[in-house]
Amino acid sequence: MMNSREVQSLYDDLPALIWAGVLTQDDATRLREHYGEVTSASKATVFAMLIAVLGAGLIGSGVILLIAHNWEQLGRPARTVLSFAPLFAGQLIGFWVLAKRSHSPAWCEGVTLLLIAGIGAAISLIAQTYHITGDQATFFLTWSLLVLPCIYLFKSTTGSLFYLCGILLWAGFAQERFGQPQLFWPLTALLFPFLWWQSKERLEDMRAAWLSLALALHFTIGLGIILQDSMTALWTIVFAALMTIYILVGERLPSRTTRVPFLLVGGIGAPILMLVFTFEGIWRNAGYRGDDITKAPLLPDLVLLGILAIVIGLTIFGPKQKRAVSFLWVAFPVLTVIAFALAAWGVPAGIAQAMFNLYTAVVGIAMLVAGVRRGSMVLANYGMVIVSALAILRFFDADISFVLRGIIFIVVGICFLATNLVLVRKRTANGGAA
Amino acid sequence: MNRPVKIGIFLLVALAQLYVPASMIWQYEDTLENGTLFKFKCAPVDPYDPFRGRYVSLRFPQQDDTVRFKWLPAMDFGSVFISVKQGENDFAEIMDISRTQPDSANYFRAIVRYGSLEYPFNRFYMDEFAAPQAEIAYTETLRDNLLDTYVTVRILNGQAVLEELYLNDMPVGEYLRTHPE
């Protein structure tokens, strides 16, 4: 599916194509009817929206600081009125925006930010007035849930970003205070209809990119919080699968603005994890060794199964031309499960370590070769960075003897040179430059 | 969704947004108006909460682990109900700490975290310049063992609201005004 920039580019090319005889005028008309009007957010509109958001935020903050200066002299009734004032003002503006300016992203984002600040200020100032310690988890949950309807009413990206942060903060505090915050998943799911609605409206501007990035980071950090108290080293499997999902999902999303954030988070997270897994210490204490398996929390296992099912489904039902690369990435969580199982059954952790060293090298080389074949410097450099990072880590790895390191480096170096020689001879035989 | 429907929904949302802080106020005002007065001896420290400003962090001798262990020895996380009665000069005396809600009106809920008790009134919010001065005042006079520091708390049906912090039997604001050094 083409985004608005690509469609506009096609429209710009149409006169030249007609003149060159590639298309007829009728073909061009049918193309225009098929893709319709190009309605992308202009740079001016995005700029106005950002300025509105910044302006509303600064005004709200400034008013709060002025009130704070005189706070000590005010009695409780005056403080109560002032606590409600920002919220009430935001709501009045909200009514006006819905009545007169609901088509303006700048006004919608600005008023949502004002409401976010107003709600937080009202609850915080009242808690301060009555010296209420309160509970951070409940505070962030209440704040986020009161903002949620505004996200739908004003189609607010700012509100969505705040909501995702609010739920993360709630999860963090709830984890510390009450144990596993299992409501994290349903609370996050409350935003999904909005995200689905926005994707159907084909948001091609920066808002879609920000939402995608926020979602990718939201799940990464949220899982980290939820899995804190789970079985030792279970996070290895879950995060390996999560990063793989991001890469597979990123490859399949139709829009570039939504695709790039997932590929970015997965593409950076997966190699980092792979390199971490090349250390023996990660696998030394994995599994339920010595613990009563019936006492293990169930939720991490369900999360794990769910994520693995998604990974496998995306690979099996994905487009054929992408499967070779996809299988390489899918091998990551599969190998992690194998390594985890081996470590849990008491197999020396060195086996898992060797497995990941080999796998990481294979991934790096595969990316490098794919980059060279496609002529993509980004992909080639990506593979080169992975291989180089692995080499540096192993070079300074004191757990491996000098002799063994030396032999491995020499053998791998010979393999690289031999491969280079073969490729050069092949190119020369095909008539290309050496 | 057409405009009148959106405005109607936003009206409901706005009422909900106003209701949450308003209900907090109603609850606390009711406690301050009708609650029983208790005094709690304390020792302040001075940290900062970015959402609510400068506050004096209060610790109470009754939060000591040995006090809790007398009633509930085996508990790392959770909440408990603390029943109190007025002792000498209205200072609070703990009658019982339990995991179930007591029948008496004079109780409040406390959090047990890492085995220690956390009272719901452990912060006294002050002007950001006065809070560190309050801590200094307490620290300096503690050497001479002269300062009588306590807070007054109103308790009603499980709700506890902090009323005032006293240094040497004076409200903290008044103490700092009369002792500018």
What is the percent of helical residues of chain B? 25-40%
Rg estimate of chain B, integer Å: 20 Å
Tertiary shape of chain B: globular
Please write the string of helix (H) and strand (E) elements of chain A.
Answer: HHHHHHHHHHHHHHHHHH
Tally of alpha and pi helices of chain A: 18
Total number of helical segments of chain B? Answer: 4
Give the uncertain stretches of chain B in residue-range form: none
Bin the strand percentage of chain A.
Answer: under 5%
Whole-number average pLDDT of chain B?
80
Major sheet attributes of chain B = 4 strands, antiparallel
Number of strands of chain A: 0
Order of helices and strands of chain B: HEEEEHEEEEEHEEEH
Average predicted confidence as pLDDT of chain A? 81
Question: End-to-end span of chain B in angstroms?
Answer: 64 Å
Give a brief description.
Chain A is an all-alpha fold.
Description:
The complex is a heterodimer of chains A (434) and B (181). Chain A is mainly alpha-helical and 434 residues long. Chain A is built from 18 helices and no strands. The radius of gyration of chain A is 27 Å and the shape is flat. Chain A starts with a helix and ends in a 5-residue tail after the last helix. Chain B has 4 helices and 12 strands. Chain B has helices at residues 3-34, 65-71, 130-143, 172-178; strands spanning 36-41, 43-45, 48-49, 53-59, 77-86, 92-98, 107-113, 116-118, 123-125, 149-156, 159-167, 170-171. The termini of chain B are far apart. Chains A and B meet through α4, α5 and α6 of A and α1 and β9 of B.
